[in-house]
Amino acid sequence: MILSDMRRYLQQHQQVCLSDIALHFDSSPDATRGMLETWIRKGKVRRLPTMACGSSCGKCAPEQVELYEWVGERP
Predict the structure, then answer these.
(1) Residue pair 36/30 in contact by the 8 Å Cβ criterion
(2) Which of 17, 56, 57, 61 is most deeply buried (CB count within 10 A of its CB)?
(3) Is residue 32 part of a domain?
(4) Does residue 28 sit within a domain?
(5) C-alpha R_g of the chain
(6) 11, part of any domain
(7) d(Cα 28, Cα 63) in Å, to the nearest integer?
(8) Domain range holding 74?
C-alpha cells in the first residue's frame, strides 16, 4: 500500500470505515491504521467518533465502526 494510493481512495470516498480501506488494499487493519496515522499527523485525515448502531450488543467488529474522513484538499 502506498500513501498516494490511500490518499486517492480517501478523497474519492470522503468517509470510509477501516475494514473497507483494509479490504481495498488487501491489508490488515493494524497496517492500515499505521498508514492512516501518517495522514492524520499531516492533518489530511481525521478519525471520526465511533458511532454505535443504537444498541450495545457488541456484535460489530471494531474495524467496521472505526470511521475515517479525508479533510485535506479535494482532487
Answers:
(1) no
(2) 17
(3) yes
(4) yes
(5) 12
(6) no
(7) 10
(8) 18-51+70-75
Strands 45-47 and 15-17: unpaired
| Helix %, strand %, coil % of the chain (to 5) | 45, 15, 40
Contact 24, 39 (CB under 8 A): no
- Count of domains for the chain: 1
Encode pLDDT of 3-48 as tens digits.
999 999 999 998 999 999 999 999 999 999 999 999 999 999 999 9
pTM beyond 0.70: yes
Query: Which of 34, 43, 50, 51 has the alpha carbon at shortest distance from 71?
Result: 43
In a domain, 1, yes or no: no
CB atoms within 10 A of CB 49: 6
